[in-house]
Amino acid sequence: MKRVSLAKRKTIYDLAELAGTSASAVSAVLNGNWKKRRISSQLAEKIIRIADEQGYAPNMQASVLRRERSSIIGMIVPKYDNRYFGSIVERFEAMARERGLFPIITCTRRDPDLEMEAARAMISYQVDYVIATGATDPDRITDLCAAAGVRTVNLDLPGTHSPSVISDNFQGALELTRRVLDNCEKELARKAPLMFVGGRGTDHNTSERIRGFRAAHHEIGITPDENLILACGYAPEKAEQSLKALAEGIGELPHGMFVNSTISLEGVIRWIRRSDHYGERKPQIGCFDFDPFVALLGENIEMVRQDVPKMLDAIFDIIDNGISDRHLIEIMPIAESMA
Questions:
Q1: What is the pLDDT of residues 236-250, one digit of tens each?
Q2: Distance CA 316, CA 40 (A)
Q3: I need a surface site. Which of 51, 138, 172, 331 has the fewest CB within 10 A?
Q4: For residues 27 and 232, what is the distance between their CA atoms, to the nearest angstrom?
């Protein structure tokens, strides 16, 4: 078998010889320190061009050196497995490229250690911005990035150390709960409390949705049962297990429920079908999330769709205008009836 010999990797000494300058000058240009060394822009451009031609550095690195900005923008997301985060990623990529930015996106699975690892990696790529989406500790990411001179914006979950763009979780949950309570009253001919399923009680979004859930009950003179608020996490199996345990503990469950995401909804539907708890009479459900395929499950589900286009418009307005004050922007979600 004929062996394929690989070309020898070029060194800064090879580049220095080709550019007719010193190795230290090449190193300064490649490290972005050429202005401090008072190296002329003409020589810097020449070194960058030769480095490109010789395959020494990626074009993106050369761009960093030429413009003193990388034009790279990073996004950290917790999940890819639902329509909401998928639509955020897809639209973010398109909007970044429209602005001549190169997007880097990584999924951190709601793991705070992976979030910090991702932020450090993005800093090493000299990103201009990091968008922390649904981060467990956005302020920790902001502080790390700020120490490296990198700006951050929080999306989906807010922080206090940099600007944040989120859904109006209280108003969205208030409206969704009103609609499910009304659907239950129409079907049962009486007012009845709902269950709340999914999410983490410690995060801002879930706590605000629970607040809206409670407020809607109080509006019609019902005190929600705190034992029926199951902030059990987002995983489908957690929703299924929590409903199973609750049914075994108290018997008959309410006829209506507020489900905190389509991920949790998967576990809810699985439990309903496996347990046959409701028999032929399907419960009334409201889901704080959106997927058009839910319409195939029947007409008993109300949804709210988080307004991703408006949220990302607000994100890029912050970036385009260099806004750095620590304000919170809340975008009202859109009610969707699956009937």
A1: 999 999 999 999 999
A2: 34
A3: 331
A4: 53
**Alpha carbons 149 and 18: distance in angstroms, whole number:** 34
Q: Give 151-167 pLDDT, tens digit per residue.
A: 999 999 999 999 999 99
Q: Scanning the structure block, which residue is given the tokens 């897809």?
A: 90
Separation CA 106–CA 97 (nearest Å): 17
pLDDT tens for each residue of 51-85: 888 877 544 454 454 456 788 999 999 988 889 99
Q: At residue 227, what is the residue type?
A: N
Q: What is the rounded radius of gyration, in angstroms, for the C-alpha atoms of the chain?
A: 26
Cα-Cα-Cα-Cα torsion 90, 95, 96, 98, nearest 10 degrees, comes to 130
**What distance in Å separates the CA atoms of residue 284 and residue 192, rounded to the nearest whole number?**
11
Report the distance separating Cα 239 and Cα 217, nearest Å: 22
Cα dihedral value 287, 290, 293, 294, nearest 10: 10
Yes or no: say if 167 and 307 are a contact pair by the CB < 8 Å rule.
yes
| Alpha helices (H) along the chain | 12-19, 23-30, 41-53, 59-67, 83-98, 112-124, 138-147, 169-188, 204-219, 236-250, 262-275, 308-320
Per-residue 3-state assignment (H helix, E strand, C coil) for 205-263: HHHHHHHHHHHHHHHCCCCCCHHHEECEECCHHHHHHHHHHHHHHHCCCCCEEEECCHH
How far apart, in whole angstroms, are the C-alpha atoms of residue 87 and residue 6?
Answer: 42
Ordered by where they begin, the domains of the chain are 12-67 (1.10.260), 72-162 (3.40.50.2300), 169-305 (3.40.50.2300)
This prediction's pTM: 0.81
Give how far Cα 255 sits from Cα of 73, 106, 286, Å: 46, 40, 12
174 close to 208: Cβ distance less than 8 angstroms: no
